[in-house]
Each structure stands twice: as structure tokens, then as C-alpha cells.
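testing teh design pipeline on a random one, pls ignore if ur not involved
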């Protein structure tokens, strides 16, 4: 089985080698030619991360419910491959292009069914490595004008800073910014329809509007708000309800990007399970997310920040439903309550200590602070105080080449005083590049 999986991946990569990356779609009116011109239209890229971190706190699931029992934990170390991504693309000409992004998270998934010789030839399921393999982008695009492009297929939803800028050269930490990565799907990708374009005297405005399937309130949680709502345990994504997402960016000031983005859609009953009880007859579970983010790049420094707020209507009834016996114990749902609101604030700055060098090497000394709360209860709902956190980290990013970064950081996650704070250190190497 494992050999079939490897072969399938190889075949898939060969097939998808005729696609184009989202960032390089062109409005070309020529006809594609064969031979060497095919390779001029081909785009190959990707990114990846390898990380070692040591957490000076317990990873036991009771560390919040019985915090005093784990106050003196010796901690634990981990090695990880957070993301390994292949981006492949092709421009067919006449404005038509396609793009793909295949992501292996945390080393991918190694599972197999084996025949055990020691057990009378019985078949045995075996999980050798966890992780995920995800098709994050797979779309067809028609470009009519710079201000009008239509994209259809599986698309990244650019709500918030991290979903829009999620490659490892777009943040300083070893892992993606924690607040947004906690309360929203990240990287958020859906199958839908997108209109986008650039306008203005210098094309310094960019917009995007999307129609996508709604989130699923059965997957909402207290510690992640709607983070898991875009996931589907099935071989398809339920789309009983549709939602809208939008983003607008402005780059009028050199080096500065200012962005607003948002999402709105009803999440209740967007599943194969139908909720027909009178108690839930008027429940919509409307999710509204608003986000502001910015980035300023200068020869000497980089500053980035985000502010996100989300609201969920009928959170108390959705929590009651998710905690009820409407779901069997074997269901794929988390069976937890969900907050009425969530927010994430983040700010990071890095100074380039090698700014005067002529060899294009960079060394950033950075610091980042965040505050987020994934569970803001409604009405008489019980509060879960450990869901509110302040996070501080600092470290170095060394770029021997523009595409490669060696990162190191130390950080502290601060919770309310009845819980244990969570310090950590991490080192790793990342790469990100596009090739023609």
C-alpha cells in the first residue's frame, strides 16, 4: 500500500506539472507553442520548513483542568516538518491558466495494510507517521483585463494576514502567527469562485471577492473557535449553504501594504446531518469575520501587524447542540462548546543587521507580541479562561540567500495566573522560491 501511495504522488506531480502559480497568472493573448516555449510557460515553486523545538511545559491534556499537577513538568522536545509544499503551474495563453499547490503537513501520512507473517498471515493496519496531505490550490483562471480575472476551483481564502501571506519568508517565527492560526482556518482553502483584479494609476489597489461553501458549525470548538469549520471528514465538502469572502489591498505608499478582509456566512446545518428539532428551527450560526493587517518593508527593518475579530450568532444553542447526544460517540465531531466571539491581535518587527552588506545576505533581529482569545462566551455560558493568551517571542532570521532562512526563537505563552505559563525555544531552516 505504501508503494502505491508513493507512486500515486509521483504520478500526480508529473500530471500537475502543467499548471501555473497564483502569483504569476498572465493575461496573454498568444497561442502556446510546443518545444522549449512550453517550459517558458511553466512555473515551478514551493516552500518548506524543518523545526526543532523544546517546550518547557507539559503536553498532557489535563494541564489546564489540573494545572497544579503539572507545574513542575520537565517539558518535551519535538522535531517537525510543518509544511512541505509543491507549487506547479502553466500559462496556456489567451488569458487561460491553471495552478496547483500540494501540501504535506508534518511529514505527510504514512499508513499501510500489511500481512503479518508472525500472526498466521493476518492483515494489519499500520500507522507509521501522522500528518496530512492536502490539495490547497487547484484552479482554472481566465484573465480578461488586469482589473478582471475569474478563478474557479480550489482557492486560498485570503481573510487575515496569515492566510494571505503564509509562506515562511512572510513571518519571523518558526510557526505561523499563533493567534490567527488558532481562531481561523489556516491556510484556509475552499472550492469556489473568485473575482480579482488590480486597478489604480499604478495598479496599487488589489481586490478579491469570493463565493465559497460555508463553514460547518459541528466542527467548531472552544480552543479553536471556527478553525476546524472548513474541514470535512467526508470525501466531499458539504455546501448546503454558501458564504462570501472579500479582501482589498492598497500599496500606494512605497513599501507599505494596508489590507482589509472579511467573511460572512451561515454555518448551522451545513452538514449531512439534518437538524429538524424545533429548538433549532431558527438557528443560523452566522459567522462574521473582519480583519485588518499591514506590512511595511524597508532596507533596515520590517514591521507587520494584524487585528481580527469574529462573531458567531446563536453560539449558546450551537454549543448545546454540539454537546448533546445528537452526535454518536463514533462521529468525527469534537463535541465541545464554542464562543460567541473571538479575536487576535499581533505585531512584529525585525531589524536587518546586515542592511549595509552588498552580498544580499540578511540578518533580522525580531520580536513579536500577540494577544488572542478563542472563546468569548455568550450570555450565561461558562467561561474557559485558559483560551485567552498573551504570547511574546524574539529571535533571529538569517538569510544566506534570498530563498533560504535559518531561524531561531524563544518565546513565552502567558495564561491567567491559575494556569502554568508555557515557555519554549525553537530552531529551524526554511526555504521558499519560484523557478521558471
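output:
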Amino acid at each position: 500500500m505504501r508503494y502505491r501511495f508513493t507512486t500515486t504522488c509521483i504520478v500526480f506531480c508529473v500530471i500537475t506539472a502543467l499548471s501555473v502559480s497564483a502569483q504569476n497568472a498572465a493575461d496573454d493573448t498568444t497561442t502556446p507553442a510546443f518545444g522549449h516555449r512550453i517550459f517558458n510557460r511553466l512555473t515551478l515553486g514551493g516552500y518548506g520548513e524543518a523545526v526543532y523545538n523544546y517546550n518547557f511545559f507539559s503536553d498532557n491534556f489535563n494541564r489546564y483542568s489540573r494545572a497544579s499537577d503539572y507545574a513542575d513538568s520537565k517539558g518535551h522536545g519535538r522535531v517537525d516538518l510543518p509544511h512541505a509544499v509543491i507549487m506547479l503551474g502553466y500559462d496556456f495563453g489567451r488569458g487561460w491558466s491553471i495552478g496547483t499547490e500540494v501540501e504535506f503537513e508534518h511529514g505527510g501520512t504514512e499508513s499501510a495494510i500489511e500481512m503479518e507473517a508472525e500472526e498466521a498471515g493476518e492483515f494489519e493496519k499500520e500507522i507509521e507517521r501522522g500528518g496530512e496531505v492536502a490539495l490547497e490550490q487547484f484552479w482554472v483562471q481566465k484573465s480578461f483585463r488586469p482589473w478582471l480575472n475569474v478563478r474557479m476551483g480550489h482557492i486560498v481564502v485570503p481573510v487575515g494576514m496569515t492566510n494571505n501571506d503564509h509562506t515562511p519568508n512572510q513571518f519571523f517565527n518558526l510557526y505561523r502567527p499563533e493567534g490567527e492560526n488558532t481562531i481561523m482556518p489556516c491556510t484556509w482553502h475552499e472550492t469556489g469562485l473568485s473575482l480579482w483584479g488590480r486597478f489604480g494609476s499604478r495598479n496599487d489597489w488589489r481586490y478579491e471577492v469570493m463565493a465559497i461553501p460555508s463553514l460547518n458549525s459541528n466542527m467548531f470548538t472552544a480552543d479553536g473557535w471556527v478553525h476546524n469549520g472548513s474541514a470535512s471528514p467526508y470525501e466531499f465538502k458539504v455546501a448546503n449553504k454558501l458564504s462570501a469572502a472579500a479582501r482589498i489591498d492598497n500599496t500606494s505608499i512605497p513599501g507599505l501594504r494596508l489590507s482589509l478582509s472579511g467573511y460572512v456566512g451561515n454555518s448551522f446545518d451545513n452538514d449531512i446531518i439534518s437538524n429538524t428539532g424545533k429548538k433549532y428551527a431558527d438557528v443560523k450560526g452566522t459567522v462574521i469575520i473582519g480583519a485588518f493587517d499591514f506590512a511595511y518593508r524597508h532596507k533596515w527593518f520590517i514591521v507587520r501587524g494584524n487585528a481580527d475579530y469574529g462573531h458567531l450568532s446563536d453560539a449558546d444553542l450551537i454549543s448545546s447542540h454540539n454537546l448533546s447526544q445528537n452526535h454518536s460517540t463514533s462521529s468525527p465531531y469534537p463535541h465541545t462548546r464554542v464562543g460567541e466571539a473571538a479575536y487576535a491581535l499581533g505585531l512584529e518587527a525585525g531589524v536587518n543587521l546586515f542592511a549595509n552588506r552588498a552580498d544580499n545576505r540578511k540578518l533580522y533581529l525580531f520580536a513579536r507580541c500577540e494577544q488572542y482569545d478563542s472563546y468569548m462566551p455568550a450570555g450565561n455560558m461558562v467561561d474557559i479562561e485558559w483560551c485567552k493568551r498573551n504570547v511574546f517571542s524574539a529571535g533571529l532570521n538569517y538569510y544566506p540567500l534570498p530563498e533560504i532562512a535559518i531561524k531561531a526563537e524563544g518565546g513565552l505563552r502567558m495564561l491567567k495566573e491559575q494556569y502554568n505559563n508555557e515557555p519554549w525555544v525553537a530552531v529551524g531552516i526554511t526555504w521558499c522560491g519560484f523557478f521558471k
